Amino acid sequence: MIRWLKNLIAHNWELKIISLVLAFILWITLVPEEKTFSVKTISVALETYNLPSDFELVEKPPATIDVTIKAPNRLIGQITPNNVFVKLNLEKASLLQEEYPINASMVSLPPGAEVIRISPNKVYLKLEKSKEMAMEISPTLVGVLDQRYQINKIEVFPTKVTVRGPESRLKPKDKVRTSPIDISSLTQTTEFEADLILPRPELRLASSITKARVRITVEEKQADLPVPKKK
């Protein structure tokens, strides 16, 4: 029996291999693309949305998530980070929760594709209560005034601005600075418009005010009068 099988396989083995290759090519040709699938893994953007207005995101989750996708061959080449998104809904987020699961229902895919794997399948983030505070605006002066002149007064309009951000990032002694104002060429009272610079990147202005007017009153120094001689 064994000898018969060996003879069967060895007989015209070249033709058998050629037939097998032709059969495979024919199968590939006749099977519709819709029934042949491929798998690919791409890094896609992780988006958060519906964050409650009284919360601040102080520790953000990773910017991207690796998603393994299965799709028909005709579609797999069209799947890119430009048309696949992972969206995390924070509508029900709380201050106590720091771990959030990521599942297939959060992945936006082209029709016909499906999620095979997500990595990581959970992300960590931290929320904090949002707070507003009125901060004093402090002008930033650079340069050295000509020695013949002196600054008599510095006025800022407005004097304060409302800042919003995470509760722990707002400090009572914080001030909002202006962009640098060069005083080295001043010889008279001059008014400047300067951008506002917040003390920390996590903070933001709570109103439409983004600039301040700074009026610097400059006067020429009075010449020293001679001291009268005693008689």
Describe this structure as you would to a colleague.
The structure is a single chain. The chain is mainly beta. The protein has 2 domains: about 80 residues, RNA Polymerase Alpha Subunit, Chain A, domain 2; about 90 residues, YbbR-like domain (RNA Polymerase Alpha Subunit, Chain A, domain 2). Strands 2, 9, 11, 12, 13, 15, 16 and 17 form an 8-stranded mixed sheet that branches. The radius of gyration is 36 Å and the shape is elongated.
What does the secondary structure layout of this molecule look like, with pairings?
Blueprint: H1 2-10, H2 13-30, E1 37-49, E2 55-59, E3 64-72, H3 73-76, E4 85-89, E5 99-101, E6 107-108, E7 114-119, E8 122-124, E9 126-138, E10 141-142, E11 149-157, E12 160-166, E13 176-178, E14 181-182, E15 190-197, E16 204-205, E17 211-220
Parallel strand pairs: 1-4, 9-13, 10-14
Antiparallel strand pairs: 1-3, 2-9, 3-7, 4-6, 5-8, 9-12, 11-17, 12-16, 13-15, 15-17
Number of DSSP E strands? 17
| Estimated radius of gyration | 36 Å
What coarse outline follows from CA principal-axis ratios?
elongated
Order of helices and strands: HHEEEHEEEEEEEEEEEEEE
What portion of residues belong to β-strands? 35-45%
CATH homologous superfamily annotation of the largest domain: YbbR-like domain
Helix count equals: 3
Q: How many structural domains?
A: 2
Estimated helix fraction: 10-25%
Query: What's the end-to-end separation, in Å?
Result: 148 Å
Q: In the CATH hierarchy, what is the architecture of the largest domain at level 2? A: Beta Complex
Structural category is: mainly beta
| CATH overall fold name of the largest domain | RNA Polymerase Alpha Subunit, Chain A, domain 2
Which stretches are low in confidence, meaning pLDDT under 50 for 5 or more residues running? none
Please identify the top-level CATH class of the largest domain: Mainly Beta
Largest sheet entry: 8 strands, mixed
Mean pLDDT comes to 86
